[in-house]
Structures are given as structure tokens and as C-alpha cells.
Amino acid sequence: MGAVVDLDGLLDQRHVWRGRQAQPRSLGLQPTGHVALDARLPEGGWPAAALSELLLASPGCGELQLLWPTLARLTGEGNRVVLVSPPFIAFPPAWEAAGIDLRWLVQVQARPDETLWAAEQCLRSGSCAAVLCWPERADDRALRRLQVAAETGEAMAFACRPQPAALNPSPAALRIAIDTRPAQWRVLKCRGGLVPAAPICAPARG
User: Fold this and answer.
1) Residue 118 to residue 95: CA distance in whole angstroms
2) Domains in the chain, ordered, with CATH?
3) In sequence order, what DSSP letters do the residues of 70-83 get, joined into one string?
């Protein structure tokens, strides 16, 4: 007869691998403000202290409408939000109508070759809750620096890039493609879960 094994003792000493433990669903520490989208994301919202990529059909095709609920919540709580090299001049009445507290919104207009550097510095500073940037070009190494900077500064980073960039690998925790015809969001990559099979209908733009 074989020896008696104290299974509880082995488990306590971590001598037995029990496989992946079931993780409770996140409460969504950074909700997107869009119920249908939050329901599809493993963390119940934006990945905290991480890089998210928004892949655009064209500049200004809806990235602000996607982000405005989050930015309104953050600035309403007195947290700084920074825009780095946006493609269009911000129209204050539209931002105020979306609920953004302009006292906490900062715009940085950097040269194209300094956009990623400026975003990285803002993220690392620890003084920003979210940093949005619109780089003209970004390789895997540059995006990884943004990811590390977001972790260091415990901030959310959003890189708005053209949709063809989806063909290239990325260290981003989340990648969402924003389509215009039809108006929808497609989750291409999400940390901690499976990519939703179906797109999410985007709300009508005002």
C-alpha cells in the first residue's frame, strides 16, 4: 500500500500546482461610462495604470465621444487630464457640454517627433490621471515605454493611431478599433480575457 500523502500540507507549502485560479470579475475601477462596452471588457472598464490603443478610421472619428465619460469623471474628481498633440484645436464649449471640468484639462502641443516623449513624461510624473496622445508614428518599443510610464505614474494612457496599425503587434493592454460605417467599436485585444466576438454599437454622435 502506498504512503499516505498530506495533501493539505503540500498545498500549504505550494508543492502542488493547482492550475489557474478562478479570478473574480473586476468591479471596474476605471469604467468607460458605456455600459455595453464595460460589460464586454474583462476588467469592467479601462485597464488601470496601463496603455490602451484607440485605432481610428480617421482622425476625430469618435475617439473623444468614447473617452468623454471617463474624462468627465476624472476631472470632476479633481484629477488632471493631458492631451498631447491632438489633431484639432479643442473647442471648450463642446468639452464643457460633455461634462469635462476644464480647470483640470491641459493641452500640450509637441512637435511630431516629440509627441511620444511628451506623453511619456506626463505619465511618469505621477500628477496625471490620464494622458491622451496622437502620435504620427509609434513602433513597439515606443509603445512599450508608454506602457511602463503608465504603470510607473499609475495613470491611464491612450494612444490614438490609424487603423492600419492594428496589423502590427502592440504591448497595449487594450486595443479598440473605432469604425464609422457602421459606427461601432471592435475590441481587438484585451488583457485578462477573450476578445468579444461581436462589435459594440457606438452611440450616435451629437
Assistant:
1) 23
2) 37-201 (3.40.50.300)
3) HHHHHHHTT--EEE
